[in-house]
């Protein structure tokens, strides 16, 4: 086990000779979609749309928008062999990548870890006959134990994660099949479910934004796992299948369960439908898959933030970060689910946009470790976040996640062009080689 930890470092690029088949990261990404929040979003959509409309919304959001974003970030990881927090050093600079991007990644993954750990604690409480609304101490003990078990494979390293996903993903599919079966039976058959046609309370674009809000952070963390895959267009195009396929299934499952039972909380739904204990055990396994991804990414981002390049150091930070996620679960992050999604939808597309623009249009698909702090990236990040926030919550228009992405891309590229001509430095070196000989300010 110690040998596995030593090999799984952050700054050292993944070995090209050990690159895995595309099915390995695709399976891990599929596990990432085994998340209760995905089902909750599907249930929310069912409050405004029929199943046919929801399916069309998912095709646009997942098959078109999400797939492209994941494939691009996945290519960055495979091409450089490095995780997102390290790739960001090229565009943001080492200091900014460590403290701003690194902290954003830790916040993201610790939040997801906390939300899912709290849900797992609820599920295990049902199995052991504990009222998690009244017996808080017993629930907290179960939640802590769950968090440690969830984090264990990620602490050991990447190679241990793929085997757990091979077991947990089929278990999650069994949960979906069982849940849909009982929900449809409760509703009175498929005809009643398919005829569901509520009055919409959100717009079509608003529905797309909801779906992206649950997935958009993957535009940033995809490289954490594709760094172990082959840097080919074919592989990076196929890898997001794990997210798209499982996402379609889980979003639709949430919608069907909401129509059949009228409750988006999967634990309550399973209780109402009379699931036996094995159903909650399968739910626990399904949650484990997304927890592995969150826990592992915490360790990678924290290692980059604190400049730790050893497998044992990454493992220790993974443990500490996962315990932080458990703490969030204990203080009730599940009650602030919507607010958490707000943070994700506003921040992460802007960060990804800067990384995309830098990698493809400035560095010619090369990773170069840049020391310092790139203020152009800071400005582009603020503008991207600002536009995303305004178009989401003040003057709703279009798809805020995409607008945040493109605004940050355009502002970053334009800002770097201006900087290269006015005051070139180490960040503009690859743009104008002839000027760097006399004007570089390292």
TrEMBL record:
Keywords (A to Z) from UniProt: Membrane, Transmembrane, Transmembrane helix
Domain of life: Bacteria
Chief place where the protein resides: membrane
Subcellular location: Membrane
GO MF terms, alphabetically ordered: cytosine transmembrane transporter activity
GO (cellular component) term, any one: plasma membrane
Its membrane topology: Multi-pass membrane protein
A family per Pfam: Transp_cyt_pur
InterPro entries: CodB (IPR030191), Pur-cyt_permease (IPR001248)
Residues that span the membrane, as ranges: 20-42, 54-76, 97-116, 136-156, 163-184, 204-226, 238-257, 277-303, 315-334, 340-361, 373-391, 397-415
PANTHER family according to UniProt: CYTOSINE PERMEASE (PTHR30569:SF0), CYTOSINE TRANSPORTER CODB (PTHR30569)
Similarity field: Belongs to the purine-cytosine permease (2.A.39) family.
Protein name: Cytosine permease
Species per Swiss-Prot/TrEMBL record: Natribacillus halophilus
């Amino acid at each position: 086990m110690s040998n596995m930890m030593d090999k799984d470092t952050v700054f050292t690029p993944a070995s090209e000779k050990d690159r895995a088949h595309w099915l390995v990261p695709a399976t891990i990404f599929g596990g990432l979609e085994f998340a209760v929040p995905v089902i909750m979003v599907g249930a929310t959509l069912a409050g405004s749309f029929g199943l046919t409309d929801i399916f069309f919304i998912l095709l646009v959001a997942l098959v078109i928008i999400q797939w492209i974003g994941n494939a691009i970030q996945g290519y960055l990881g495979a091409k450089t062999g490095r995780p997102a927090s390290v790739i960001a050093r090229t565009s943001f600079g080492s200091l900014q990548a460590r403290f701003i991007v690194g902290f954003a990644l830790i916040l993201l993954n610790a939040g997801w870890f906390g939300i899912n750990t709290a849900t797992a604690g609820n599920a295990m409480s049902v199995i052991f006959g504990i009222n998690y609304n009244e017996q808080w101490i017993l629930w907290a003990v179960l939640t802590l134990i769950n968090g440690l078990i969830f984090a264990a494979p990620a602490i050991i390293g990447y190679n241990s994660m793929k085997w757990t996903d091979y077991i947990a993903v089929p278990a999650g599919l069994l949960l979906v099949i069982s849940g849909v079966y009982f929900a449809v039976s409760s509703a009175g058959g498929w005809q009643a479910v398919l005829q569901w046609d509520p009055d919409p309370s959100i717009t079509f674009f608003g529905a797309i934004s909801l779906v992206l809000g649950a997935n958009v952070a993957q535009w940033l963390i995809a490289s954490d796992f594709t760094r172990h895959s082959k840097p080919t267009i074919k592989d990076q195009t196929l890898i997001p299948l794990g997210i798209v396929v499982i996402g379609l299934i889980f979003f639709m499952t949430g919608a069907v369960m909401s129509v059949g039972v009228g409750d988006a909380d999967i634990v309550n739904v399973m209780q109402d439908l009379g699931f036996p204990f094995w159903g909650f055990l399968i739910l626990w396994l399904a949650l484990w898959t997304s927890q592995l991804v969150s826990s592992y990414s915490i360790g990678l981002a924290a290692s980059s933030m604190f400049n730790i390049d050893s497998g044992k150091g990454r493992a220790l930070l993974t443990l500490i970060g996962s315990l932080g996620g458990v703490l969030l679960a204990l203080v009730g992050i599940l009650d602030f689910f919507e607010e958490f999604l707000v943070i994700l939808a506003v921040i992460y597309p802007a960060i990804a946009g800067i990384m995309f623009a830098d990698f493809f249009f400035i560095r010619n698909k090369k990773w170069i470790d840049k020391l310092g702090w790139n203020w152009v990236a800071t400005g582009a990040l603020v503008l991207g976040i600002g536009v995303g926030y305004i178009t989401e919550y003040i003057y709703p228009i279009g798809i805020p996640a995409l607008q945040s992405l493109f605004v940050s891309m355009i502002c970053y590229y334009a800002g770097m062009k201006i900087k290269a001509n006015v005051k070139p430095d180490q960040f503009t070196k690859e743009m104008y080689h002839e000027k760097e000989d006399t004007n570089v300010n390292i």
